[in-house]
Predict the 3D structure of the following.
Amino acid sequence: MARLLAGADLFVHNMSPRAIEGLGLSEKDVRDISPGTIYCIVTGFGTNGPYAGRLAYDDKTAAIIAAYAIMAALFERERTGRVQAVEVPMFESMIDYLMAEQMGARPSCPRMAPRDTRG
């Protein structure tokens, strides 16, 4: 694994922090092997907080968000040399996706009944 990581641009996983640390592939471990590798973790509910250890499953929403975040991290590294760590919580990704029209103080409130246009 160290040989693969040595030339890697990116390391992505969706394991719990405890599981990945047990494999010796935490962010610190990966950085020790390859300081320029972008580290991406896709979690159920984030890496800290009351639900951090819980597992989750998401078809593609978190993957799409992770892909965009990784592209931004690659762009940042190319332009500035700074290496990023990317964390994509599946729960927050799905909430952002489903609640897009309510964000930014612009709620989408469909009419409950037809509007009287007779004046």
In short: Residues 61-80 form the longest helix (20 residues). DSSP finds five helices and three strands in the chain. The mean pLDDT is 85. The longest strand covers residues 38-43.
